[in-house]
Amino acid sequence: MEKQELKRLKLAACQLRMDVVTQVHAARSGHPGGALSSAEIFTWLYQKELRVDPAQPKAPGRDRLVLSKGHSSPGYYSALCRRGFFAPELLTTFRAPGSILQGHPDMKKVPGVDMTTGSLGQGVSAACGMALSAKLFGDDYRVYALLGDGEVEEGQVWEAAMFAAHKKLDNMCWIVDCNGLQIDGRVEDVAGIEPLDKKFEGFGFEVIKVADGNDLEQLEEAFNKARAVTGKPTVLLAKTVKGKGVSYMEDQAGWHGAAPNDEQYEQAMSELRAAMQEVENNG
């Protein structure tokens, strides 16, 4: 990746984090931790990976993304907004009565949302249906699904995984945001899921491990590998930091679903503006 392009994407990830904090603070509720950990993933998907057109959000040949961990919607909304699907002014209406930007994404209201999600585990089943449809009708679009590591405790995830491998859905890529935390604490303490790579391999997936899922160059390499896989679905296991970019939120389960107060908001925005300035100065 050229240096200027990497800088552009880093700035976009910084902006996404600022948007996440702004939305959750404005609403006085929401889930910032997992949205912040996925910032580079959202950025890569909407700035580089997905073939989408904001002018034609329902174009039949578009690539699809299912946000299976729907509570991370502030990151999703920022990615859609900055890609041009709706105006930035709407972000501050997050979770407000009458707003299209509710706590979980609604495909009937938000331009660019391909599937309404909420209950964990269900999104990947919808993604399987989309990918199978493409196979049956000879369409060349790809389907992506973003889920959390806590979410893979859901049995439906593994039913979908078994189905995906059986149907050889090589046009589908799952991304697991492995930030190690969920609402009740550390994933390993709530219901240990490791070895996750071996489990997905056992279910017939091509597994690509991303040592640092907050590193755009590592994501580039992983997504390039995923597109080359044939005969089976792919999963990216991306190691990230919950609350990434805001010092007091990082690796803290309490920020899974909590909103910053005014003082915390100012601190977060100050840190994120400094991070953006660092990128501007040094790339």
From TrEMBL:
Designated name of the protein: Transketolase
Family: Belongs to the transketolase family.
Keywords for this protein: Metal-binding, Thiamine pyrophosphate, Transferase
UniProt KW Protein biosynthesis keyword: no
Record has Isomerase as a keyword: no
CC cofactor: thiamine diphosphate
Gene3D superfamilies associated with the record: 3.40.50.970
Domain Transketolase N-terminal: 13-269
Species assigned in the record: Allofournierella massiliensis
